[in-house]
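ping. complex inputs:
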Amino acid sequence: MSQNQPGLPDILREVRAFIDAVTPVVPEQDRYHAMCCSYLLAVAERELTLGAAAEAEMQAARETLSEVSGIPCANETELANCLREGKLDTHWEAALQSVLLQVVAHVKVSKPTHLDSVHQERVP
Amino acid sequence: MSIQAPAVPAEILARLEGAVRRRFGNAATVANISVATLGGSNRTLLFDLVDGTARRRLVFRQETYRLPYSPFIEPHLQYQLLTLAARHEVPVPAPIFEFTPEDELDRGYVVARVDGETLPRRLLTDPRFTVARANFPAEAGVILARLHRIPLVEAAFLADTPESRDPIAAQLERLDHYGEAHPAVELAVRWLVRHAPAGQRRCLLHGDFRTGNLMMDEQGIRALLDWECAHLGDPMEEFGWLCLRSWRFGMLDRPAGGMCAREPLYAAYAAASGQAVDAQAVHWWEVFGFVRWIVLNVMQAHGHWTGARRSPAFAACGRNTCLIEYDLLMTLLGRYR
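pong. complex structure:
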């Protein structure tokens, strides 16, 4: 279903810009929550634009682990269960690398500046 | 959601005044009441106890929200701990009284207000606290040594908490309650199980010793706050938690709470306690600390999205869990120290 302009990322960006502008002048007891609101709007904007790619990265990382270990883990829940049950203990290094890639995909949506330079996206 | 500071219901104020008169006489009153706006599951008020010409600034803490599968010990045990710690010269806000059924204030207590600063950003960057930061390793070492020296028999009332019995199992039980899959947590738990340090000591732990829970003035530490995570365990856990990357508040080259390097703190603790700090054990407890901190954030987010306790801050906790997971995994890989 298409909607008129502006698109959702634009709307979120504009609302966030307003919150950032008024945060310095809201009552002090509300300032922290205002900053949290700004942060959450940025997360929402990134999820809209990057979410599908992040999901694909996580899925690819799980598939690689399944191929290496021979243990199918179709989603996060199955992977967590396999790990809890010790099924991936003998493939721990591969599991660590796979889970790291999946977490990196999450962080790209939540707060990409949190990533170490080795995981930062290179700006073309 | 109101933008105003939450008002204190009139009956709470009336009951507080009743509680004060019950203990200090009918002439005692309360005045200058203000709401402390930063906090978790409690109503925290500052007020003056006025008794004739004497006036004393106190802190009222009332439990307002009981979490299912709570990691926090109940207010009565917190008050017991404050009394115990004070008796052993661990700096804490002086306990004044705890609520009894006649007060009709449910669970909570009153302590003395300690002047100072707790905000990490100020403590770690403001030039006013340069001396306090320099004194931190020695002071923290002495305080922790005193705390860990408290005879276990005097803290036996904490022996049966989930954290005291089995800290790893406690985290997993809580995580299962929230119904979220966290492969990073599961991975770390497998590592913890296979690398558990041998010969762990057992003593009373504060459980949340970090910048943010230390009341400090320009000279140093005035009081250790927020005892709701106290339990019995290995003293190395205390250092693992303090040195967690999350508690450096951006001062990544100062692992001990963003204040200082590890070595001077460890040396000060060893000198004060007669017990060396085992760096490998501290690393294990740092990995555990990440697991615990992730579960705490999942808990806060769960309270938000289930509607039990909504706020932008608790919503942000949910989206922050992956940041902590990232730090955990980079630490397991040896890329973060």
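Residues 159 and 232 of chain B are 6 Å apart (CA to CA).
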